[in-house]
């Protein structure tokens, strides 16, 4: 493939640029759409997990609230509070002995004791493993299990002494082995000094029971205010401050922190990316849609650019033909009125104008060369000819040949006008020449021909081609004149828009229909029987000077006369300027 054709591939470059731009735009758009719908999906899932986490925190908060409510019941019941004071200051044997003494002191009526109260208070709650009272000095401990099966492993692992040491350093809610412990201090109502602590051991499974099966892969964690893990259904990954701030851990999932409750607990949720259902499907769907749209867009633009590229190539081929000299080359004009159609129309008009211009210049040059050759061949001394004619005229006048003298005078005048080598004259000059020729022909045929002039005064100074009216008068004497009666000639000139119409009409014999068809064919340049050279020459000269829209028209009817119309452009310029402009068109 040639270098020039590669350089002409502007539509291919435009298609490539458009395709890359479309791909980038669609890709960017789909990226934001994917992010948007991904965020919507993630937000929906996080709302669901947040509800589960909040339910866990509420459940834990209710356990703490229940323990606080129990201590308030103790404060409200003075006998029960007195029993707690005895338990916190005596060992179990002394506590029992003191209770028996109180029983007898009140004559057998004793409202409630600590042991029965604690055993009965949490019987409704299956999550409670045991309730334990520990004195402030940790000397006395009272444990009331509600579920021996779950309490026994805890006690065997730590023992009473280690268990007290473990719980003494903890906050209000903490994790001990596999149990969740809630802690509440009991103060002496009179001195407000701590008597001891109530510990409620619970099974943290009540938090796991709140997790639906659909969310089992998600990590739900409950933390205390010291960020100690109280519960989690899966191992909680390490969470940095940056990840916690951004609420996202790359490669692990989405991190969510639930607001802290009154009891001090808060939740942390880690949602794996696999739990955000539909995200890969959405992304691949959007990717497929984007690729399809880009391919469709590229295909449409390819066919459009290919069609326009073909039309441009046709224009280029036409230019190449014109460059090689094929001035008659034409471009097809498309029905769509776009810029390329306008270029094709302008190209065709330019070709026609250029062809006409070259034809006009070429013809004028040939005519000029012929005229110069004829002038050189027939060049004689004008003064000698005019002086000789004047001598003959005077001799004829002396001999009494008045008609001959007048004919010689008119012939001399005609020769002087003919010898003047000027292409453009005024309309008045041409009319004057016609008058001289008409008088000469009247003397020749010994018959008067009335001549009527219908021209406004300013039009007589209008520039006009020389020797365009005389052939018309000559044809009149040859074909239209009546020999038995007088035949008149009428000359008129009028302006019509940007043109000037000059008419010569007679009331003579007229022309037959067959002859008129022959004349019209000769004027149109049709091949056939040639004739009426004078009319054809006038017509061609006018078109060569002024263009195809101007020229000669003839109408005639047998027995009614003939009318010849000459159309030339109207100008308000002087003759000299007009002649110069006419040759520079």
From TrEMBL:
MF terms in GO: ATP binding; phosphorelay sensor kinase activity
Domain (HAMP) ranges: 306-359
Transmembrane segments: 15-37, 281-304
PROSITE patterns associated with the record: HAMP (PS50885)
Membrane topology: Multi-pass membrane protein
Domain of life of the organism encoding this protein: Bacteria
Main location: membrane
Location within or outside the cell: Cell membrane
Signal peptide (UniProt feature, chain positions): none
Matching SUPFAM superfamilies: ATPase domain of HSP90 chaperone/DNA topoisomerase II/histidine kinase (SSF55874), HAMP domain-like (SSF158472)
Gene3D superfamilies recorded: 6.10.340.10, Histidine kinase-like ATPase, C-terminal domain
Keywords noted in UniProt: ATP-binding, Cell membrane, Kinase, Membrane, Nucleotide-binding, Phosphoprotein, Transferase, Transmembrane, Transmembrane helix, Two-component regulatory system
GO CC list: plasma membrane
PANTHER family: SENSOR HISTIDINE KINASE YPDA, SENSOR PROTEIN KINASE HPTS
Protein name, UniProt field: Two-component sensor histidine kinase
């Amino acid at each position: 493939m040639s270098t020039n054709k590669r350089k002409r591939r502007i539509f291919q470059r435009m298609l490539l640029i458009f395709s890359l731009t479309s791909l980038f735009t669609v890709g960017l758009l789909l990226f934001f759409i994917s992010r948007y719908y991904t965020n919507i999906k993630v937000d929906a899932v996080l709302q669901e997990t947040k509800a589960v986490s909040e339910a866990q925190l509420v459940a834990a908060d209710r356990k703490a609230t229940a323990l606080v409510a129990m201590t308030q019941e103790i404060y409200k019941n003075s006998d029960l509070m007195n029993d707690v004071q005895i338990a916190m200051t005596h060992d179990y044997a002394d506590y029992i002995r003191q209770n028996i003494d109180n029983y007898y002191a009140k004559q057998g009526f004793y409202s409630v004791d600590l042991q029965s109260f604690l055993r009965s208070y949490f019987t409704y709650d299956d999550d409670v493993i045991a309730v334990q009272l520990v004195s402030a000095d940790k000397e006395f401990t009272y444990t009331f299990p509600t579920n021996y099966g779950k309490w026994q492993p805890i006690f065997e692992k730590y023992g009473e002494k280690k268990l007290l040491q473990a719980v003494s350093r903890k906050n209000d809610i903490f994790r001990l082995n596999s149990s969740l412990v809630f802690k509440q201090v009991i103060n002496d109502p009179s001195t407000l000094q701590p008597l001891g602590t109530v510990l409620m051991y619970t099974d943290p499974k009540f938090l796991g029971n709140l997790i639906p099966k659909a969310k089992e892969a998600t990590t739900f964690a409950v933390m205390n205010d010291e960020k100690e893990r109280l519960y989690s259904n899966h191992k909680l990954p390490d969470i940095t401050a940056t990840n916690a701030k951004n609420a996202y851990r790359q490669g692990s999932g989405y991190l969510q922190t639930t607001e802290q409750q009154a009891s001090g607990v808060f939740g942390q949720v880690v949602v794996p990316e696999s739990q955000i259902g539909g995200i890969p499907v959405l992304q691949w769907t959007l990717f497929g849609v984007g690729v399809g749209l880009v391919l469709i867009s590229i295909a449409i633009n390819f066919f459009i650019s290919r069609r326009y590229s073909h039309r441009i190539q046709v224009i280029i081929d036409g230019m190449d033909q014109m460059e090689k000299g094929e001035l008659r080359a034409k471009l097809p004009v498309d029905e769509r009125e776009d810029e390329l159609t306008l270029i094709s129309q302008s190209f065709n008009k330019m070709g026609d104008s250029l062809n006409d211009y070259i034809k006009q210049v070429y013809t004028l040059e040939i005519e000029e060369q012929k005229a110069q050759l004829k002038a050189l061949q027939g060049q004689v001394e004008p003064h000698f000819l005019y002086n000789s004619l004047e001598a003959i005229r005077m001799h004829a006048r002396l001999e009494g040949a008045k008609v001959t003298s007048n004919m010689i005078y008119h012939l001399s005048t005609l020769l002087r006008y003919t010898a003047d080598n000027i292409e453009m004259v005024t309309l008045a000059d041409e009319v004057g020449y016609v008058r001289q020729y008409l008088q000469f022909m009247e003397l020749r045929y010994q018959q008067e021909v009335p001549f009527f002039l219908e021209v406004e005064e300013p039009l007589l100074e209008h520039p006009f081609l020389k020797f365009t009216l005389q052939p018309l008068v000559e044809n009149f004497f040859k074909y239209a004149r009546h020999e038995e009666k007088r035949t008149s000639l009428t000359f008129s000139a009028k302006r019509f828009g940007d043109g000037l119409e000059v008419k010569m009409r007679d009331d003579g014999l007229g022309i037959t229909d067959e002859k008129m068809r022959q004349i019209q064919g000769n004027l149109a340049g049709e091949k056939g029987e040639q004739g009426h050279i004078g009319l054809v020459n006038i017509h061609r000269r006018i078109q060569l000077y002024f263009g195809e829209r101007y020229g000669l028209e003839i109408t005639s009817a047998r027995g009614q006369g003939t009318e010849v119309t000459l159309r030339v452009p109207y100008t308000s310029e002087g003759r000299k300027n007009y002649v110069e402009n006419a040759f520079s068109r």
